[in-house]
Amino acid sequence: MRIFILLLLRIILPLLVGASVSLTQVSPVPAPNLAIDVTGPPYNADKTGAINAAGPINSAISAASDREVLFRCGTYTITSPLMLHNISNVRLHAEAPGCATISYNSVAFSGFQIYANRGETTQFIEIDGLRFDNAARSDIRVAGRGSLYIGNNAKPGTSGIVSDVFVTRMSVARTGTCGIVVADASNVFLDAIRVEQSGEHGIYISGAQRVYGSNIEIDNPCGQGGTIAGCAGLKIGTVLSGVVNVSNITVRAGSSPHVHAFLLQNAAHMTVVEPRVVLGGPSQIGFRIQSNHAFINRPSVDGGIGYAGASAFFIDGGTDAVVNGGVITGAWRSSPVQLRTGANSPHIHGLTVESILIGPTYAVLMTGPISPFLDDVRIMHAEYGVNLGTSEGTELTNLVNNATRLKYKTTNARGYHITEER
After folding, report:
1. What's the pLDDT tens digit per position in 361-392?
2. What is the largest CA-CA distance in the chain?
3. Beta carbons within 8 Å of 31's beta carbon, 6+ residues apart
4. How many Å separate Cα 276 from the centre of its chain?
5. Rounded Cα gap, residues 310 and 260, in angstroms
6. How far apart are the C-alpha atoms of 394 and 294, rounded to whole Å?
């Protein structure tokens, strides 16, 4: 137990101050001589990809409490999910990071399910270096499954305790479902994660408590045949309590329309530190915020060549969302910053809009937010600056507004105050 307490302290404290941390720097593993080799006797899991290996691997996992499970380099084909429940102090790891692939072709189940039945506890689990490859195309009817599913919704009707799960150096080559789902679990740590192509969300967090992530790359979410509404690279839904803190994350949105790089909903006190976004298609959104007390620190959003209907920040819900610092680059055919009806007291501080705005496009567009506050925002290249729309109680302070045609449109705004940097 002591090693896990030290691990928690070494991971959580840097995340709380906005620093990235690597789980590979620490290793809560049992003694190496206790390792179970899934390819060795009595399990003899096939690593050539020719024979279903789900049964032997599940047998090895079920015997692994207080031990580690070794996956030799190779391909492990499964036709049913890998399942881990009611065991503790287990490390499952590849022989070398990324060399052991769990391969399957289905959207009917999650590839690896970590859960706890009623009265059970599944705790202190580490997954290191595994790779998942699911060739199946997305099926919207099963939205929410994942290559890795952490939490009791992986197996509906269960209600045990799932906590203290550490996932590091994991990759998802492709999947018709989500890359990773965290639901109904607590104290979950994700580090050095790569999701290359998913039919649904790259990472989906909902119904969880205290989730921390760092050093994450998500490429082409919603691109494996997915059409799910509100599809996102990182979607944070309902968080029951505690915090979600993610640092050093990059989302490249691919070319599918209507993709959100980040979709933040129904959760309080979430922090995203130094996120990077590259948009690549029409009607894509860098950050859609509908949550209370979301804090986005030093973001970077590249709009690419300029896509119809795309925006960098679209805030249409929640209270006291904060965007602190950061930069917007690329070309934009619609307003990169949009504050909409439903947003209450959004704060944008120190953001630089370096973008080239195409046509009659405002750098900032407001349609009905209450008490928006913009401070030290810099609009560098635009014909049109800020459209206050039907906003109420707007405060604009210390702005640098280089709009060449119209700096401010205030026709329908109520109770606004504007000062520019001297």
Report:
1. 999 999 999 999 999 999 998 899 999 999 99
2. 77
3. none
4. 12
5. 10
6. 19
Burial class (CB in 10 A: 0-12, 13-18, 19+), 5: exposed
**Closest CA relative to residue 123, chosen from 5, 246, 215, 38:** 5
The 3-state DSSP composition of the chain as helix, strand, coil percent (nearest 5) reads 10, 45, 45
Of 286, 74, 98, 78, give the one whose Cα is nearest residue 193.
Answer: 98
CA distance 177 to 314: 25
Can you list the pairs that 23-27 forms with residues at least 24 positions away whose Cβ atoms lie under 8 Å?
23/126, 23/128, 23/166, 23/167, 23/168, 23/189, 23/191, 23/192, 24/128, 24/168, 24/169, 24/191, 24/192, 27/91, 27/126
Tell me how far the alpha carbon of residue 214 is from its chain's centroid.
10
Q: Are 253 and 278 in contact (CB under 8 A)?
A: yes
Residues 268-311 pLDDT 10s: 778 999 999 999 999 999 999 999 999 999 999 999 999 999 99
- CA-CA distance, 212 to 244, in Å (whole number)? 6
Distance CA 39, CA 59 (A): 12
Indicate the pairing of strand 82-85 with strand 373-375.
unpaired
C-alpha span between 328 and 381 (Å, rounded): 11
**Which tens digit of pLDDT belongs to each residue from 37-48?**
999 999 999 999
Strand pairing class (327-329; 300-302):
parallel
Distance separating alpha carbons of residues 153 and 116, to the nearest angstrom = 10
CB atoms within 10 A of CB 331: 18
